[in-house]
Write a structure and sequence with these properties.
Layout: H1 2-13, H2 19-46, H3 53-58, H4 67-75, H5 79-85, H6 88-107, H7 120-139
Helix pairs in contact: 2-4, 2-6, 4-5
């Protein structure tokens, strides 16, 4: 009897979404890839970015140095060069996919599915890793962008 009550409580906690919301969540990754690809292509072909101020003034690679070149390499299909330019682009993409999986499970499948990506511990861990990566890429030339 208590198992049935637990199931009823769990079902009551889940919000039932409308059909159009479920369809939008299913379309989201495809629309995102198209929009981001077009935006990246436009930016890489028609906009010139100024050099990194931190690198120009202090000679220090910031955590995002090489990110534009990493996106360009990824668009051209060169995953290894993208990783070499800035490994955090791949980490950001994986994080976005995990967040989408959680959202998809919640809205479309109507199941509570909690990943450890959406919490403060993960955010703090990412910030610490970003700081360590920044220090290491300024010490070891192999980690610096090309």
């Amino acid at each position: 009897m208590s198992a049935e009550l637990d199931d009823i409580k769990k079902e009551a906690n889940l919000k039932h979404y409308k059909t159009y919301q479920k369809v939008l969540i299913c379309i989201l990754p495809f629309a995102s890839v198209v929009i981001l690809s077009f935006t990246a292509w436009f930016v890489l072909n028609f906009i010139t970015f100024p050099p990194c101020l931190l690198y120009e003034v202090g000679g220090i690679y910031c955590p995002s140095c090489g990110m534009t070149r990493a996106v360009e390499a990824l668009i051209n299909g060169d995953i290894l060069l993208s990783i070499h330019q800035n490994v955090f682009l791949i980490i950001y993409i994986i994080t976005a996919i995990l967040i989408y999986i959680e959202l998809f499970a919640k809205i479309v499948l109507e199941k509570k599915y909690k990943l450890s990506v959406c919490n403060l511990k993960f955010l703090y861990a990412m910030l610490i890793l970003l700081g360590i990566y920044t220090i290491l890429r300024n010490i070891f030339p192999i980690l610096s962008p090309v």
